[in-house]
Every structure is written in C-alpha cells, then in structure tokens.
Design brief:
CATH class of the largest domain: Alpha Beta
Keywords: ATP-binding, Nucleotide-binding
Pfam family, one: Mg_chelatase
Distance between the termini: 77 Å
Helix content: 25-40%
Number of strands: 18
GO molecular function, one term: ATP binding
CATH topology of the largest domain: Rossmann fold
CATH architecture of the largest domain: 3-Layer(aba) Sandwich
Oligomer: single chain
Mean pLDDT: 89
Radius of gyration: 28 Å
Number of helices: 20
InterPro entries: AAA+_ATPase (IPR003593), CHLI-like (IPR045006), MCM_dom (IPR001208), Mg_chelat-rel (IPR004482), Mg_chelat-rel_C (IPR025158), Mg_chelatse_chII-like_cat_dom (IPR000523), P-loop_NTPase (IPR027417), Ribosomal_Su5_D2-typ_SF (IPR020568)
Strand order of the largest sheet: 11-14-17-10-18
Family: Belongs to the Mg-chelatase subunits D/I family. ComM subfamily.
Largest sheet: 5 strands, parallel
C-alpha cells in the first residue's frame, strides 16, 4: 500500500486541533516534501525522520514521498509531528500494519537515533484525544502529564522501535501512569508573619472572597511575605480548575511540572516585564503571566515601577477573567482568572514621613501617579501595612504564636462554601444584578456608604467593590446579612493615605 493516514494534534491556544497526517509514496526521483502550512521546525522534521528510521534499522523508501498535514489552513509548529510522520512512512511502505493506526493518535519529537523526546501541550492533546475516543501515544517523559486527565487511554514509549513493537503486538507499552497519589503542600506558612494583625485580616478576607488587594507601606514591613502566603490559605483547587491551569502551563515555554498538580500557581513577574510577557503574545500566541496565574495569585511587587502602559493591559482581564490575543494569522483566547496582589511603597525612597526621606512633593505625586485611577478603582481592597513593631523582632517565650495557614484556611473554606451555595461563585465575581439580591443594605447603612462615596470621591465601581468585600466579611462572620460593622470595615479597605 502506497498511502497511509496517521492522526495527531496541533496546538491552537489552549486547544488541540485534530491533524491528519497523510503520507503518499509514488514513483519518481527520491524526495520528501511536506505541505499543509508547516512552519520551519515541522519542515525540518524530514531530516530527523530520515535519520531516526535508518538508525532504528528500518528501510527509508527510495521513492517520491509526499506528506500532507490536513487541514491545510491550520498552522503547525514544533517537532510534535515527527512521530506520526515516521509512522506514516513506515505504514505506507508496509513496514508496520496500517490497521493498527486507525484508533490511535501520536505526538512526539524524534532524535536522530530514534529516541522519543518530550513535547509541549500533551495535556490538552490527551483531553481532545479522549473526547475523540482514541488512544494516545506520547514520549515517556510526557506520560504522567497525559495521565492527569483520568480519561481515555494513553501509552508511553522511549523510542520509535518501542512504538513499532507495540503496533506489531510484540511489546505492551505502559499505559496511564498514575499521577502522584498524595498532593504535596508546598505553600509557605502564614505563621511566619509576626504582627501585622490588620494586614493578616485583610489577606484572609481577600482569600475568602477572591478579592484583589494592594499592600502599601515602607520597605521591610512584610508585604511580599504576606503575598507569598496567600496561596496557602486559598481553598483547594477543584479537578476542573487543576486541569485548566495545568493545560495553560502545558502549552507554555516552560511546560507543566507534574509535581505542581493541584497546586495554585503563584506568579511574581519582575517590574521590567513587558506587556507581552504579562498578557501573552507572539506570532503564534502563547500565554503570559496573567494566564499562567489562572486560578492562582499574580503578585506585582513595586507596582509603580512597572511601566504604566504595561499595567493598563490588566484592566480588561481583571474584569473579564480572560484575554484575547489577536494576530494577523490567527487569534487565541486564554483564561486569566487570577487573584491580583500588589505591593508599593509610599514614595520613591519608601520612607515617607521619616527623617531619612528626602522625596519632594512633586516626586511623590509623580510616583503615585504611575498607577492610574481606573486600575486602582478595579482593586477591591487597599491596605496600609505599617512598620513592624521592634518588640516582634525578638519573640519572647510567652508570646502567643501566630495562626498557621491551615487554621486560617479552614475559615476561608467555610466562607467560600457559603458563597458557592448562594451564587455558585466567589463574591469578587458577583455581577450587578446579583449584588442587588445578595448585598442588600438598610437605609442607615446606605446613607453610611453615600457619605463615604462623597467624602472619598468614590466611583460606582468602588461602591460595588465595597458591597462585595462587606459580603465576604459577613460570610466569614457567619452572618446571613451585611451588618453595619461589616460595611464599616469594608469601607476602610477603600482608602489609603499612600494612595491619595
């Protein structure tokens, strides 16, 4: 038989689109051509495939070989098509049975010796293959990632020879290697933070309602330490959240590490990061930091040091929970349901109001002005973190130890469960109509909010954020209704002396 068909997958954003690899052998001068919108790395696969076949003791056909990657209008990149191309050539030249390829999909890069090497995007490929009711063959290094879906059946091989032996029923390859049975908790403990009771309280509220928060204060007050402890007090990830997050990391340049399964991501890009690094991009769109932080925490330290144009790109994802990247050739949409935590100093030197500060009013104004009003308006909570009490630098034996992350986490889980039962979402995601139903205020409390709006010049968006935070505070207290004390505390999180 001079023609063979092998099934594979190409990555388009976080989705794995079906690709049919068609191989045809015909008479003529020996040659190998690849068609079907293949980029450079795919076209180079012909040299890798030729060497892999010869070094694996197979016969490379001395005929005209035409390889079509269909559909032709779908961009293909990377070395993931090496294995299906090699198998297509072997099947077309009757060196492996064609019928063994009908119910399987293949991805993998080939070394010159026939070794199979890991590729990106195995998890979305495994999900799509399972939905198509086919089995998947992957490189051995990708086996655990492919097994994370717990759906369908996947096989793992180290070499091209092993794949062919499996197709000849001469060797049974391992299938569905189990992922880690015990999820390791790698989060830093909140007990490490001494003092800062108000900041710890604000962090707990932020975790319970999935609210964004800005910490402002002088250097060394624990802003970064507090932010790094947030993932450890968040509720556990659901299976769907874990798969979605792992899928995004799977298609990223770094790839997905199986030991991070069910772990909420914590991303902390440097303030020199570009807009593309933050939201994603490239000729073939790749996810940025906001997508890699999906269902986790995005921490922006030294917020005013970020380029203002870079920060402005966050405004839409904060509201919508997704980012759409459009290019001339194609378009990709990535989820970005991250929880924003930011930190800043009160002035360029960080010591505003102290003798060591020599910043002028103009320098302070320009420094704070790097954060636009619209962006600041979209942050739910503004928290001032004061200098650490010197007495806490040397704990005494009779000091009461701070609460651990696990203790705080249990309260957060209970509050989040109340929110899910009420609206099937965290309070930070409540829409306008839902606020009218779940965040009703008495006449006295509404007048209190009106005074705050008038005094602080708050917007309608800020008013809605006050209601969401107050609703979370009430949930932590186990109250079915928002009380005055809850509302007063929520209003306090909308004002900072350092954010004038």
């Amino acid at each position: 038989m001079s023609i063979a068909t092998v099934y594979s997958r190409a990555l388009t954003g976080i989705y794995a689109q079906a690709v049919t690899v068609e191989v045809h052998l015909s008479n003529g001068l020996p040659s190998l051509s690849i068609v079907g919108m293949a980029e450079t790395a795919v076209k180079e696969s012909k040299d890798r495939v030729r060497s892999a076949l010869i070094n694996s003791q197979f016969t490379f056909p001395q005929q005209r070989i035409t390889i079509n990657l269909a559909p032709a209008d779908l961009p293909k990149e990377g070395g993931r098509f090496d294995l299906p191309i090699a198998l297509g050539i072997l099947a077309a030249s009757n060196q492996i049975p064609v019928q063994s390829l009908s119910n399987m999909e293949f991805i993998g890069e080939l070394g010159l010796t026939g070794e199979l090497r890991a590729v990106r995007g195995v998890l979305p490929t495994a999900l799509a293959t399972s939905e198509a009711n086919r089995q998947l063959m992957v490189p051995f290094e990708n086996a655990e990632e492919a097994a994370l879906t717990e759906q369908g059946e996947s096989f793992a091989a180290k070499t091209l020879l092993e794949v062919c032996s499996h197709l000849h029923d001469q060797l049974r390859l391992p299938t569905n290697l189990n992922k880690q049975q015990h999820i390791q908790n790698n989060y830093a403990d909140l007990a490490d933070v001494r003092g800062q009771a108000s900041a710890r309280r604000a962090l707990e509220i932020a975790a319970a309602g999935s609210h964004s928060i800005l910490f402002a204060g002088p250097p060394g007050t624990g802003k970064t330490m507090l932010a790094s402890r947030l993932p450890g007090i968040l509720p556990p990830m659901s299976e769907q959240e874990a798969i979605e997050t792992a899928t995004i990391h799977s298609i990223s340049s770094a790839g997905f590490q199986v030991e991070n399964w069910m772990q909420r991501p914590f991303r902390a890009p440097h303030h020199t990061a570009s807009a593309v690094a933050l939201v994603g991009g490239g000729s073939q769109p790749k996810p940025g930091e906001i997508s890699l932080a999906n269902h986790g925490v995005l921490f922006l330290d030294e917020l005013p040091e970020f380029d203002r144009k870079v920060l402005e790109v966050l405004r839409e994802p904060i509201e919508s929970g997704k980012i759409t990247i459009s290019r001339a050739a194609n378009q990709a949409e990535f989820p970005s349901k991250f929880q924003l935590v930011a930190a800043m100093n009160p002035c360029p030197c960080g010591y505003l109001g102290q003798a060591r500060c020599h910043c002028t009013e103009e320098q302070v104004r320009r420094y704070r002005g790097k954060i636009s009003g619209p962006l600041l308006d979209r942050i739910d909570m503004l928290m001032e973190v004061p200098a650490v009490d010197k007495k806490l630098l040397r704990p005494q034996p009779d000091d009461v130890p701070p609460e651990s992350s696990e203790v705080v986490r249990q309260r957060v889980i209970q509050a989040r469960q109340i929110q899910l039962e009420r609206a099937n979402k965290a309070n930070a995601s409540l829409q306008h109509k839902e606020l009218e139903v779940f965040c009703t205020l008495s006449d006295h409390d509404f007048q209190l909010v009106e005074k705050a709006i008038s005094r602080f010049g708050l917007s309608a968006r800020a008013y809605h954020r006050i209601l969401k935070v107050a609703r979370t505070i009430a949930d932590l207290a186990g109250s079915p209704d928002i009380q005055t004390v809850h509302l007063t505390e929520a209003i306090g999180y909308r004002r900072l002396d350092t954010a004038n």
